Amino acid sequence: MLLLHGFPQSRHSWRHQVPALGAAGYRAVAPDQRGYSAGVRPDPASLARYDIERLVADVLDLANACGSGRAPFHLVGHDWGGQVAWFVASRHPDRVKSLTILSRPHPAAFRRAFKEDASGQQHRSRHHKAFHDPKTTAVLLENGGQRLRATLAGNGVPSAAIDEYLSVLGNEAALEAALAWYRAAGAIANMEIGAIATPTLYMWGDQDGSVGRSAAEWTSEHVSGAYQFAVIEGAGHILTDDRPDLVTTLLLNHIARTA
Q: Which terminus of the chain is more exposed, N or C, with fewer CB under 10 A?
């Protein structure tokens, strides 16, 4: 099982889920992804190295490195990790045994919501455009990463977890690489794929400031396989910190159904 973190986080996103998955008999791998990891950090000025197809290839390479061969594996993704996971399931349905997405809607559902400005999606996604500004890294890191810390805290992330995330992302090289994901994608609202046949669990917090209800609900229209939409009341965007026990329970139940 591969677990892919989002922005502005790291492998530590899955601190609660990995031990539980291991105890249930699964081999759970939660890496720092391309650019977040100092060992895999291509020059962020070369945006082609952060193209979505490279990110998809990274997932397959990780699965192969873990010994899966051509066998299917369970895939979990939050936020940008969820975006990549949608693409992996679309491009390589034979490799993905089950798909679990946290917060990030199906790209086609997001594109529609953004285009129609349903549930105020354009305002919710205003940070996407801001991340293309070359001054963004300095702004986010000033005063000890004050803005990053405030964003995480506002999403229910405890201070100890914030320190863990910034231990990975709280430096210029890592943050520039993380922002290269957005810059390489251009307008995320233009990214689109077809329907997903893989059994899918989609979790969304109804207080998510980044993803509105319309995009979340329309995701069902783009999954042709077995589908569960779990609305987590009172939860925001970063569900693994906001509702870790519930996320773990939903995830274990979902993969057990597809084991």
A: C
Q: What is the mean pLDDT of the segment spanning 40-64?
A: 95
Per-residue pLDDT averaged across 10-26, rounded? 97
Provide the token pair at 187. 């307008």
Question: CA-CA distance, 69 to 76, in Å (whole number)?
Answer: 19
Does the domain made of 2-258 have the CATH classification 3.40.50.1820? yes
Q: What is the DSSP letter of 160?
A: H
- What's 106's DSSP letter? P
For the chain, report the end-to-end CA distance as a whole number of angstroms: 11
CA distance 14 to 61: 20
- Non-local (6+) Cβ contacts of 17 within 8 A are 3, 28, 30, 76, 240, 244, 247, 248, 251
Question: Residue written as tokens 């996604």?
Answer: 125
Task: Measure the CA–CA gap between 117 and 79, rounded to whole angstroms.
Answer: 20
Query: Residue 189 — very low, low, confident or very high, per pLDDT cuts 50/70/90?
Result: confident
Report yes or no: 226 and 200 within 8 Å, Cβ to Cβ: yes
The total of other beta-carbon atoms located within 10 Å of residue 50's CB is: 22
Average pLDDT, the chain: 95
The single residue listed with the structure tokens 């998809």 is 56
pTM: 0.96
> Is residue 76 a contact partner of residue 4, using CB atoms and an 8 Å limit?
yes
What Rg value do the Cα atoms of the chain yield, rounded? 17
Beta bridge partners of 23: none
Mean pLDDT for 46-70 is: 92
Q: Structure tokens of 109?
A: 């559902």
Question: What integer pLDDT is reported at residue 69 of this predicted model?
Answer: 77
